[in-house]
Amino acid sequence: MGPEAAAGPEPPAGPEPPAGSALSAPRLVSAAREELGAGRRCRFPAARALQLAGEVLAVAAGLKPALLYDCGAAGPAELRRYLARLREAGLAPRRLHLLGVEGSTLLLHPGLARRRLAAVLGARPAPFVDVSAGRQRPALCGPAEAEAIRDHLAALLAHLGASEATAAGPVSSSKVVPAGWNLCTIVGVLLGYPAAYAFSVEESAENCLSLTPLRVFTVQASCPRIRDGFRVQIYSFSIPESLCAELKEMLDAWCDELKEAFSMQNDFVDLCILSEVVSLPVVAL
Fold it and tell me: Could you tell me the pTM of the whole model?
């Protein structure tokens, strides 16, 4: 699986404000509406536009390896133009990478994404939770299942390394064609979750999480650069409550790494990590 270069010419950019300067909320909203709003039935909501800008900034600041763009039908070309507009507004001075996977697009912090993949490849126990529909309850993946996932992650890591070696410009891009990958697992790892859900792609996309107690973790921080008091949701993920003790060391390490990364940036303040236990009749992955 080799990288398929998708780089095109960057849109012309105007002068960028100094890094760390205050951002214009109207400019951020206009960028989303004008570059990502095509084909939408309704106008791109201002609140969602600002949240998206905050998530891009969180990736650029090294607080998360990636974000999954799920706000509409925009593809890599539209996202490249959107990111160029954000750069003009002074939001994302660091280089980013757009990864296309089966019709979805992820925005990556290239170095952090590769480090995250490498860390998961070496993690013991493997941080993959089997939630296949045929199971009575979730459990950590067995050795064979975990090794198959590691093979897919290693292929992705090689792809990103090759893409990085030829990258140029503030935004690079590539596309992968996954063969037998469970995208739920791969995306969970790329998004920086301490544990990712997995299930048998041959059986069903259903899962065994219905009415299962889940500990839901939410990470938020304030971004005064966008607006005083504006809160950005940086992470939201769940782990079966029954596995939290088994994964405690991994969860603690994840929290410590996030706090360290937070201390090394100046775009966000007031980090808040919350968790609560919920049980839902249906859990979509």
Answer: 0.89
